[in-house]
Design brief:
Layout (H helix, E strand, L loop, with lengths): L11 H22 L5 H27 L11 H31 L6 E3 L3 E3 L13 H34 L6 H4 L17 H17 L26 E3 L5 E8 L2 E7 L2 E6 L9 E7 L3 E2 L3 H7 L12 E11 L4 E10 L2 E14 L2 E11 L19 E12 L2
Helix pairs in contact: 1-2, 2-3, 2-6, 3-4
The protein binds protoporphyrin IX containing FE (2 copies).
The site of one protoporphyrin IX containing FE has 21 residues, from helix 1, helix 2, helix 3 and helix 4.
């Protein structure tokens, strides 16, 4: 066995990236095969996949700045070529597979958002929105590249490990010690001096931070989302002023067998209500659709997508109340007409209204159909996940002006 040259091990960073990414890649393949209908696993798959893409960019930059240590002199030329080809193929797949995954979710007709690790809104790939509909062939190709790519990784891994094992057991100068962390005492050769950590990591962090910032700019962006729950202060023209801090518009339904709901943080109501003259009463409510909050970032982002509220194109929903009738001493019904995404639907609203001097307290609810408002009709028209019936509840306090 020939002795190793003094600097024949990969840099510590190359070694750390190699083993961390090898484990994550294998985990990702397992996850990809075991995530059917499991939303949390899909999100984890996308989060780890984008992280791997980031690590790949860093790793390639690192390799360009820190060339691998020279190969042992007893390696045959074909072995050198084969191992080089396998390594290059690995790098290519580490770029192609996550990019194909990202493209797949970007052109999917089911516009499900990607929220990395439940915290960072991740955009779809730019310029892909036109490819969502009627592109079955493209969808099929991208899906195949993504899923078959995993099999190519497995085959290459077989060659890769066989190569490493062969060099260990054949009495040649092995390669494994070049890639084993330097935790095993003096036996392991020293690492090459490392350079360019700031360039490799810094440029990848900046690139990915810029991509992550895309959702923060432009119309319907989170920057303009009233997620803070601040209600609009637009002054109503009717005879009541809403106390927005004490009022709330919320909705609820059933998602995957469990109750699901949220609120709209930003809305304004114009209330003309005369208990003694119901025929002259009218209420107009404008809701800022992007202000929807459910307590889960993934649902908030998904609800803003094109197939749900489509907040970029339709920033507002309107509800008009008319046809008031008293049904009891302090209870009423009205017709609630909801206008959203160019659709209109009318449903009954029943509410209790307690008027005490100039102060009124309202509690009402109306049930809308998702289908009638074209909400989520791509991914779940049959309401097998999200109930078609969505109950909108209003709790409000108002002060009479005159
Ligand atoms: C290196 C990273 C990745 C690996 C190794 C990987 C691997 C896989 C595998 C093995 C499957 C199962 C395919 C099948 O046989 O049906 C899968 C499915 C999927 N992956 Fe990835 N993936 C990666 C990154 C990503 C990324 C970054 C995204 C999206 C941002 C993504 C989105 C998806 C989706 C949506 C599916 C389901 C596709 C379908 O059901 O047709 N993946 N992935
Ligand atoms: C999916 C899993 C894996 C991937 C994607 C992968 C990828 C790579 C790549 C791209 C290189 C070349 C580094 C460079 O020169 O830039 C490399 C080197 C190496 N890998 Fe892996 N690897 C994986 C798993 C493994 C495993 C399980 C072993 C253990 C036997 C291993 C042992 C090595 C060794 C010893 C080297 C250094 C080869 C040399 O000195 O030329 N790898 N690997």
């Amino acid at each position: 066995m020939t002795s190793s040259s003094p600097a024949s091990r990969y840099t510590a960073i190359a070694i750390a990236l190699h083993w961390a990414m090898a484990l994550l890649l294998l985990f990702m393949i397992w996850l990809g095969w075991n995530m059917d209908d499991n939303e949390a696993r899909y999100q984890l798959h996308k989060s780890v996949g984008i992280t791997l893409l980031f690590l790949t960019v860093t790793r390639i930059a690192w390799r360009l700045l820190n060339p691998p240590p020279p190969l042992a002199s007893d390696m045959k030329p074909y072995e050198r070529t084969l191992s080089h080809l396998v390594h290059m193929a690995f790098y290519a797949l580490m770029v192609i597979i996550p990019l194909a995954g990202w493209l797949l979710v970007s052109i999917s007709p089911f516009q499900i958002s990607t929220v990395l690790f439940g915290a960072i809104d991740w955009p779809h790939l730019p310029f892909t929105s036109g490819l969502r509909q009627g592109n079955e062939i493209l969808h099929g190709i991208v899906e195949n590249v993504h899923s078959k790519g995993a099999w190519v990784i497995i085959v290459l891994l077989g060659l890769h490990v066989a190569g490493a094992v062969k060099h260990e057991i054949s009495g040649e100068d092995g390669v494994l010690k070049r890639m084993i962390p330097g935790l095993f005492g003096k036996a392991s050769p020293p690492s090459l001096p490392a350079r360019g950590a700031l360039v490799a990591f810094g440029s990848s962090v900046i690139l990915f931070a810029l991509i992550a910032a895309i959702p923060l700019i432009g119309p319907g962006s989170s920057a303009s989302r009233g997620a803070s729950g601040s209600a609009s202060s637009a002054e109503a023209a009717g005879n009541w002023t809403i106390d927005y801090a004490a009022s709330k518009i919320s909705f609820s339904g059933v998602y995957d067998g469990k109750p699901f709901g949220g609120t709209f943080g930003k809305w304004a109501a114009d209330v003309a209500f005369y208990p003694e003259d119901l025929a002259s009463s009218a209420v107009a409510v404008t809701i800022d659709t992007a202000s929807v909050t459910t307590g889960t970032k993934l649902y908030d982002s998904t609800l803003r997508e094109a197939e749900w509220f489509n907040t970029g194109a339709f920033p507002q929903a309107e509800i008009a109340l008319s046809g008031f009738e008293a049904t009891g001493e302090e209870t009423y019904t009205a017709t609630a007409t909801m206008m959203l995404k160019g659709r209109e639907t009318s449903v009954p609203l029943s509410f209790a209204l307690k008027i005490n001097g100039d102060r009124a307290i309202l509690d009402g609810s109306a049930t809308f159909s998702r289908k009638a408002l074209d909400l989520g009709q791509m991914s779940d028209a049959g309401a097998s996940w999200v109930s078609d019936e969505i109950v909108v509840e209003v709790q409000g306090e108002a002060t009479r002006l005159d």
